[in-house]
Amino acid sequence: MNALPALVDALPAGRVLTDPDVTESYARDQTFLRPGTPLCVVAAQTRDDVVTTLRWATEHRVPVVPRGAGTGLAGGATALDGCVTLSLARMTAIRELSPADEIAVAEPGVVTADLDRAAREHGLMYAPDPSSYEISTIGGNLATNAGGLRCVKYGVTRDSTLGLEVVLADGRVLNTGRRTIKGVTGYDLTGLFVGSEGTLGVITAATLRLRRAPALPPVTIAAEFPSLRAAGDAVAAIVAAGCRPSLLELMDRGTLKAIDDWKNIGLEDDVQAMLIAQAEGDAPGDASAMARLCEENGAGFVAVSSTPEETEELIGIRRLAYTAKERLGACLVEDVCVPRSALPDMISEIERAAARHDVLICTVAHAGDGNLHPVFIFDRGLPEPPENVWAAADEVFRAALDLGGTLTGEHGVGLLKRRWLGLESGPVTDEVQRGIKQVFDPLNILNPGKAI
Amino acid sequence: MNALPALVDALPAGRVLTDPDVTESYARDQTFLRPGTPLCVVAAQTRDDVVTTLRWATEHRVPVVPRGAGTGLAGGATALDGCVTLSLARMTAIRELSPADEIAVAEPGVVTADLDRAAREHGLMYAPDPSSYEISTIGGNLATNAGGLRCVKYGVTRDSTLGLEVVLADGRVLNTGRRTIKGVTGYDLTGLFVGSEGTLGVITAATLRLRRAPALPPVTIAAEFPSLRAAGDAVAAIVAAGCRPSLLELMDRGTLKAIDDWKNIGLEDDVQAMLIAQAEGDAPGDASAMARLCEENGAGFVAVSSTPEETEELIGIRRLAYTAKERLGACLVEDVCVPRSALPDMISEIERAAARHDVLICTVAHAGDGNLHPVFIFDRGLPEPPENVWAAADEVFRAALDLGGTLTGEHGVGLLKRRWLGLESGPVTDEVQRGIKQVFDPLNILNPGKAI
């Protein structure tokens, strides 16, 4: 393409990558989705690099796919034919960390766990912790409004975002939000960008709220159940009792079996589900209450940690879940979320869909939020999920919506879920969203065809 | 106006009010701002009434000023010449209250405290509690993204809003958000409407998150300080120590004196400020820690409640603040918010502005959020604040921005703060906001001239 030399000239040396082996490595996320062939990758190091790239893209009408670490599960960062993949992974500065105001200003390439560790040096933490938090970046977390394990207590990424520095499609820089905890000047542009999956602008810095890290170590419980439904009932009982877990994770037998086959955790034959819950030091009574509620709902065995090492051991089981499932085959990782009281029903629906379509579905759930990740396993040799997997997934999506839920709790729509969007949002929503997209990106160069 | 009979015909009997004495009573909020003369008031009772009114307004290009209880402090509901004032105060249904999912679906005319009371019957609470919560409505709270005393722990109105039913300017109905705690399908339209001050659509129902009400009564402390700055330092120390107050309110001597003159609370001569803090039953250690930090920062006397009656007595002092000040004269109630570490500096700036311009300023602050309400007192005989009050207010606004703060923490921009907007938000923000307004309200009939 003729325009490429102009981009190379406009950026500092080394920013534009065109070697096909290199660009290919930036083209996919964690989905099976087959990417297009990008024109090039821009590895931005500064906000000015982003401005330059977007000005050029606007001038030459080139689509731009912003990208963090590529850990997405919905195809939001999947390359399009002829696009510039704009990688923010090298913008890794924590520009500021203010313990007094409990805020940090981080660039999009900062690895989520690195920000958390930096905060902990001051007795603070960065709360959002998607399962990928050791490899995913703040920019990707913002793009998808990532959740995680702790969000049952501390909220999702949007709840920790106070302000943003954004480069718009035409290269203008927009500062949204503020450094204060509260503020109502103007429309909530900050919230609008969070979760917009790179379709409205490219975030080059975020003012993030830090939280006080718990002073005392948490108490962790792990409870084994004879049925998935019983575990779901225990979750509903825990929520109804007003416990405030800082983590409440559910794993079905398929998941546990995959972990056991890999790491031999001594899984008994009659265990159909496990619940892992954590109560922080400010709620010590909640751990024993949650253990009791598990027993009352049929748990056969309940382990309670008494040391940080035991806690790590119990949580470690949950952390193995995704990798263990990847050993079984290719994975379609789904992300429905239902009102919390509907969790047991949703679990039953997933089991029914699996049986009806003869699909292996292993489910983990951020149960305290009603957010389930049914993982549909299919033959690794296949380029994409076969018909019966899509049929089962379709039933799961529809069941979630019928139960008052949503297609995606924390992964985003990306490319993967666009074909179901119409089931959840009506024509007025679509029209309004297209109007907003038009305000920010009238030429439709930012991540076209994604999210909305 | 010729169009009015068509509106009267289209709505059920009794909805359109045209008696000038009646329409005048719907024309003002709590500010001194002189309203325009409305064409009529529509007292909507159903969503269909709102749809009918907005369709008619679009057809005839009539401006519409949505209105809740009229307790606003920024002129957001002030009538404009020739407008329809669309009152939502009669839409008072709590359509649903689900203890299992901890949500309520409320219409805009529900009084905030009524929703809270309905939730408490199920061991839950509706957290946002602006000082006006016994008279203000959910719709007004949503329009301004209202805060309150408890938001230091539980967040502002937006943090409790999961979804909305909105009637757009042309009468189309838009449903935003969801019933689930998490969800990332599409752009965050819910957050966009919250705080938009009636300029983007008219909210006819909200799905609101309820929280578990604390099981134990709170412990309340009241500390008296020899200087305002010392009290500000105590707040900074409390925040830095990681205490989690559920309420942290600061009052200056002017405020205390006004309360004492009215209710005789036995104010000593050397008390320049009082801090009222509350720790809930889940953080019992925080109350004693906060008392100790007050003493270390110079508090002369610290009262600690041990019964609910004593708590009510201490909190009662704070509740008297606004009414006590109204006894002194007309009030310009301001609402700056600064990063929490800047609270002592902001207090000093307010004192300097008061002295320099010879204005009586009485300040209360939601100190845990850095949100200050300096109240500028002026002669009740004047139709609006005199020059020296504006000059002092101007300095206070500029100081807040210089300290990294914002013009308004929870009241909104309305008409009152529009002339300072340019100091906080730049031309790109303005252009983007106008673009969003255009998407939702291309004819500019919804609360024109307000908020942005």
Average pLDDT, all residues of chain A:
95
How far apart the termini of chain A lie comes to 29 Å
- What name is given to the CATH topology of the largest domain in chain A? Vanillyl-alcohol Oxidase, Chain A, domain 3
Number of domains of chain A: 3
Helix content of chain A: 25-40%
Number of strands of chain A: 18
State the low-pLDDT regions of chain A, or none: none
Number of helices of chain A: 16
Main beta sheet of chain A: 7 strands, antiparallel
How much strand content do the residues of chain A show? 15-25%
The CATH class of the largest domain in chain A, by name, is: Alpha Beta
Structural class of chain A: alpha+beta
CATH architecture of the largest domain in chain A: 3-Layer(aba) Sandwich
Describe the oligomeric state of these chains in a short phrase: homodimer
Question: CATH homologous superfamily of the largest domain in chain A, by name?
Answer: FAD-linked oxidase, cap domain/gating helix
Biggest interface goes to: A-B, 83 and 83 residues
Estimate the global geometry of chain A from the Cα principal axes: globular
Radius of gyration of chain A: 22 Å
Instruction: Walk across the major sheet of chain A and give the strand order.
Output: 15-12-14-13-17-18-16
